[in-house]
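Collaboration report, partner site 2.

Our partner group contributed sequences for two proteins of shared interest, and the home lab folded both. The records are reproduced in the order in which they were received, starting with the first partner submission.
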Amino acid sequence: MATVLNITNQGSLILMLYEGALKFLGKAKEALTKKEDSDVGSNIIKAQNILTELMVSLDMSKGEVAKNLYKLYDYMNHRLIEANIKKDSGLINEVQGMVKELKDTWELAIEKLEEEKV
């Protein structure tokens, strides 16, 4: 039971990080439409900081899943660097979609664990 609680607690923290990244990416896109380049950059950097936090918190001893998530976060980080340089909403959309998909997957996993706990 304790393991399930730990996983759901950790999952909740991960969900909050994903939600934060999505919030900052949304603000970056909004600033982009208003031609507020400094706000675009600062919000992209905030999203990148969240991705970096997700990267460094991975337990690489857990195998391929952790390694693949690391590669995915690294890819998203590079796309955001490019988005910031080019001020490209398409690249922000790409990363937003990837983060949203990861968030949805975590939500399903947590829901499943909660059901098994009952």
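Second partner submission, folded after the first:
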Amino acid sequence: MTPRSDEGPSGITRLVGVYNADGGLMGELRYLVDHYLRGRSCSLCDVTHSPIRRKAAWDTQAAALGIPFELRHLNELDPPLADFVAGRAACIVAESGAGLTLLLDNDAISSTHGDVDEFFRLLRTAVSS
């Protein structure tokens, strides 16, 4: 099958990284409390962000993939994606003409220990499989 012009080399039209957290002011505050006072964290947040801001290495590697890559909080998902993710965040989901596919689950993302290079090595392997 030849990829459509709006597909990446693997037939993927979009990647979505789903944080295990809500966005917005209240979601961010809740995450900070959970992270710093309760020791909970989001494995994808650990990869994409330093304690202060988003990691520049993340932006560089995401742009180099050649596939649109969006990051979304749980409360920012459209209903089909929310239903697909349902309790599996943090995760990376691929969208293609065939539908949605879970590329990396929370355990895989956690295994990178927040290392951007290791995360993208895993992701590239998953995309090419």
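Feedback sent to the partner group on the second submission included the following. Residues 12-128 form one domain. Residues 8 and 67 are 6 Å apart (CA to CA).
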